[in-house]
Specification:
2 copies of one chain form a homodimer. The first copy, chain A, is of the alpha/beta class. Chain A has an 8-stranded mixed β-sheet with strand order 3-4-2-5-1-6-7-8, with helices on both faces. Bound molecules: adenosine-5'-triphosphate (2 copies) and magnesium ion (2 copies). One adenosine-5'-triphosphate sits at the interface of chains A and B.
Chain lengths: 268, 268
């Protein structure tokens, strides 16, 4: 089972939208995909749960795995063909405080994964906008990181802090962690800001190529996810963009991303 | 000194952009405004600091106030006419962990405020996208809360969780805390999603009016901050929208907001 963590400590850059729609796109291509929602705000879980209109989440969720030693299989829910979700719940926000000082708190999720390792081809982990215990659990559990990036000012400033964290985790806690790709999201084509930041990001990762770092082979995805209101509407119908608006630019872009991921990141 | 906390645990909804530009607008109207940056990502500090291009922050910042008992006056920096900033720094992210279990950790900022109470007319506090210790410090220090809201799905879902937190803080830690206003940001006029969510928010706060809650008198600002790329460009020049693009829709909207705040929220 390949394990991808979708990370960026900056808020509202498209982590959840990417985790959900990329998972859905790969499920449509026949991969068995499990989406783990590590964000206490639970937007990925709400996006894919059929009880969406009343925003109701399952009682048993990742909190029970972290605090009460529950089994991942017990809390996993089906979310569509080839797609499953390991839901979050609001109690998950207590994990940071309840686990302060607990030895091994950064590797709890990783220790739970073997039991589902043969169930799926791919695990996609959606993270909260922070670099706390929950995100660290994603980084120690994952093989690869995807960083969604809104091409606005300070995007690179945040990424260098994130790369520092990836570097520390790969040195101390998870030697197989690498940065697989950076994805420009909410791309406002036609604005010079987007072009400039996209150029800066491309340059940064080209220069990284000869170094011995976890991002030496990182791909700046050619696919850019353009701003498209359909992507913001889809969650209220409990649907991926492919069910909600299959011919929209949002669907085209996440389809193109899935093709790029299949070709360059996932072996067949 | 009036104290306004700008809060929303959802990421990327316009907290920092609002904290910075509303502060700048009120400073232009002759108010002495101090902007306190409680977000370890320090975007408000970077937005207003002249060392912006190299994204350099002062060595002494709010971290020293929380952990080393520094005085707020020692770390405050001028940021323009009638405008000062109490900067953040990356170490601020350690506060959550270093203060776990420390008694009174939710009221540290409040205890430091008396020394600057006569220096300014208004303190505006920018918060991170979470409901942790830093945001709690803002809630116990403030008289009023402004909630920037992106009119997307789940915006109301997040707000009700936030109102719960405001309610708890006002009952247990800060009896004068109220919700002053909700501000629709990144408003994509012309989309039905924005209209629907704006309608839901308006309805929610109308129904709240007769109850005995901290949001009974909350205002849904008539001003909506429209999506405008100039607002995203201004930080890279270290300028408020009024210096960077004074005739842009972003400047018009934050000016209109400032007028609404002066008329309905701040006494002259
Ligand atoms: N390309 C896009 N076009 C239009 N709206 C988008 C796009 N991508 C995401 N959105 C919307 O923008 C908002 C923020 O996106 P999203 O929730 O995916 O970001 P996030 O990084 O997961 O945020 P958080 O940091 O709070 O977890 C959501 O309402 C989402 O529906
Ligand atoms: N009305 C707007 N039009 C266009 N861009 C905007 C607007 N408001 C904010 N932005 C941009 O969107 C991004 C997110 O906004 P901002 O940083 O203010 O949100 P935030 O709520 O403070 O985020 P965080 O949760 O990470 O602290 C920034 O790059 C900002 O410049
Ligand atoms: Mg998210
Ligand atoms: Mg902010």
């Amino acid at each position: 089972m390949r394990k991808i963590a979708v990370l960026n400590q900056k808020g509202g850059v498209g982590k959840t939208t990417t985790a959900v729609n990329l998972s859905a796109a790969l499920a449509r291509r026949g991969r068995k995909v499990c989406l783990a929602d590590l964000d206490p705000q639970a937007h990925a879980s709400l996006h894919l749960s059929s009880g969406l209109r009343d925003a109701r989440l399952p009682d048993r969720n990742l909190y029970d795995v972290f605090i009460h030693e529950a089994n991942l299989r017990d809390i996993t829910q089906p979310a569509g063909e080839n797609l499953w979700v390991i839901p979050s719940g609001i109690d998950l926000s207590a994990v940071e405080l309840e686990m302060a000082g607990v030895a091994g708190r950064e590797v709890i999720l990783r220790q739970k994964l073997p039991v589902i390792d043969d169930d799926y081809d791919l695990l996609v982990i959606d993270c909260p906008p922070s670099l706390g215990i929950l995100t660290l659990n994603a980084l120690t559990a994952a093989d690869e990181v995807f960083i969604p990036l809104q091409p606005h000012f300070l995007a690179l400033h945040g990424v260098s802090k994130l790369l520092e964290t990836i570097s520390l985790v790969s040195q101390r806690l998870n030697a197989q962690l690498t940065l697989a790709g950076v994805l420009l999201c909410m791309f406002e084509s036609g604005t010079k800001l987007a072009k400039e930041v996209a150029g800066d990001v491309a340059e940064f990762f080209e220069q990284a190529h000869d170094q011995n770092t976890p991002w030496a082979n990182a791909r700046l995805f050619e696919t850019k996810i353009r701003r498209n209101i359909k992507l913001a509407e889809a969650p209220s119908y409990g649907q991926s963009i492919f069910d909600y608006a299959p011919t929209s630019p949002g669907a085209q872009d996440y389809d193109a991303l899935a093709d790029e991921v299949v070709e360059h990141i996932l072996p067949t």
